[in-house]
Amino acid sequence: MANSAQAQKLVYLVTGGCGFLGEHVVRMLLQQEPRLRELRIFDLHLGPWVDELKTGPVQVTAIQGDVTQAHEVAAAMDGAHVVIHIAGLVDVFGRASPKTIHEVNVQGTQNVIEACVQTGTQFLVYTSSMEVVGPNIKGHPFYRGNEDTPYEAVHKHPYPRSKALAERLVLEANGRKVRGGLPLVTCALRPTGIYGEGHQIMRDFYHQGLRLGGRLFRAIPTSVEHGRVYVGNVAWMHVLVARELEQRAALMGGQVYFCYDRSPYKSYEDFNMEFLGPCGLRLVGARPLLPYWLLVLLATLNALLQWLLRPLLLYAPLLNPYTLAVANTTFTVSTNKAQRHFGYEPLFSWEDSRTRTIRWVQALESSAQ
Ligand SMILES: NC(=O)c1ccc[n+]([C@@H]2O[C@H](COP(=O)([O-])OP(=O)(O)OC[C@H]3O[C@@H](n4cnc5c(N)ncnc54)[C@H](O)[C@@H]3O)[C@@H](O)[C@H]2O)c1
Ligand SMILES: CC(C)CCC[C@@H](C)[C@H]1CC[C@H]2[C@@H]3[C@H](O)C=C4C[C@@H](O)CC[C@]4(C)[C@H]3CC[C@]12C
To answer: Which InterPro entries match (predicted)?
Structure first.
């Protein structure tokens, strides 16, 4: 992609560019992709911060649109060289119906693929998820595995099922001829649990801790490792993949890459305390305060209440049988595939990632006062 005639000639489209990860990818592209001429940000809900980006040297075009509408996607994509497809409905709490999750995550992805073919966009990077692999419904641990580690991936929940289907569509589309006759080159990135500035669930835990007098209560044993990766490094991986996909199409086309960095292996709660601790919260209990069977019972009750109350109101607490199973099953990755295939090294050290996230939580504190 980088011959001199093409310097500052590339048009990128980022779907979901106003979400948590999307905003980081958009900002990272503007900082780290010198060949960018135009950056199109496509999202159902455009953030007000997008306007601030319009004063720089790169043309930033904000497009309010819906990935489930094929014609809107195709119109937005016309003339784009690369599409980074991040838009998705991230719902493990039962807020949206399985049908809506499927429409956005699977049909939306199919629309992006068809738009590539129709408009001649040759490079497609898809944001998949660790949940395409697991944890599975049997609760099997995935301990520091890599892209080739055998694992029985069985999905029942609509979100991982939709991500797995969408990822398969993207990988199978690799090599399809796009308008003009060139082959489509696709690949999928699988982040583990992303953290960093803008992370809604971290914000929720922080506010919950404040409401409980500065305390959170341990629910998950410290021995259960949960994979986490800093949002800045996930964004950097997206930028690098998009950049390298043309030169290394034969190697990278149709491939999947876990997103990883040097964040430590810890339980979900202990990891959150790396940021919430310095902001004044305390995790009470060296071991879970409630026995696991009681948590399962509470999670089941929550699911039942959600079902009963659905005609009247939306009851969607953090704890349900699915989130409990994910939080309580070891799932961590240890791989260097991205480094081998496209020279990825984390842009942010663990210390930087931690400091940036702590500063962001501290800013939440001061903005709440
Ligand atoms: N957050 C995580 O820990 C995590 C981990 C692994 C993978 N992912 C994946 O990363 C992607 C981004 O996740 P996120 O955490 O930034 O979520 P997010 O909800 O913050 O961002 C998703 C964005 O997609 C947009 N969107 C939703 N439906 C749309 C539609 N129909 N048309 C156009 N835009 C639409 C939303 O408005 C939002 O801006 C998702 O595909 C998700 O599956 C997230
Ligand atoms: C049992 C309670 C004390 C804690 C509940 C925490 C729960 C809400 C958290 C734990 C793990 C989190 C998921 C995990 O980090 C990875 C992903 C993948 C991504 O594609 C979407 C988000 C998701 C499912 C996180 C959602 C929140 C979870 C379940």
So the answer is: 3Beta_OHSteriod_DH/Estase (IPR002225), NAD(P)-bd_dom_sf (IPR036291), NAD(P)_dehydrat-like (IPR050425)
- Ligand 2: residues with CB < 6 A are 90, 92, 129-131, 193, 201, 219-220, 226, 268, 318-319, 323-324, 326-327
Indicate if 159 belongs to the active site: yes
Catalytic residue from among 126, 143, 151, 159: 159
305 within domain boundaries? no
Say how many domains are in the chain.
1
Atom 7 (ligand 2): residue with closest C-alpha?
Answer: 323
Assign residue 150 the CATH number of its domain: 3.40.50.720
Check pocket membership of 126 for ligand 1, CB cut-off 6 A: no
The reply to whether 83 falls in a domain is yes
Please give the distance, rounded to the nearest whole angstrom, from the Cα atom of residue 87 to the centre of ligand 1: 5
Mean pLDDT by 10 residues, the chain (369 residues): 59 98 98 96 97 93 98 97 98 96 98 98 98 90 97 92 98 98 98 97 95 96 97 98 96 98 97 97 95 96 97 95 95 98 98 98 76
Range of the domain at 135: 4-196+226-263+332-349
Q: Is residue 231 part of a domain?
A: yes
One-letter-per-residue 3-state SS of the chain = CCCHHHCCCEEEEEECCCCHHHHHHHHHHHHHCCCEEEEEEEECCCCHHHHHHHHCCCEEEEEECCCCCHHHHHHHHCCCCEEEECCCCCCCCCCCCHHHHHHHHHHHHHHHHHHHHHHCCCEEEEECCHHHCCCCCCCCCEEEECCCCCCCCCCCCHHHHHHHHHHHHHHHHCCCECCCCCECEEEEEEECEEECCCCHHHHHHHHHHHHCCCEEECCCCCCCCECEEEHHHHHHHHHHHHHHCCCCHHHHCCEEEEECCCCCCECHHHHHHHHHHHHCCEEECCCCCCCHHHHHHHHHHHHHHHHHHCCCCCCCCCCCHHHHHHHCCCEEECCCHHHHHHCCCCCCCHHHHHHHHHHHHHHHHHHHC
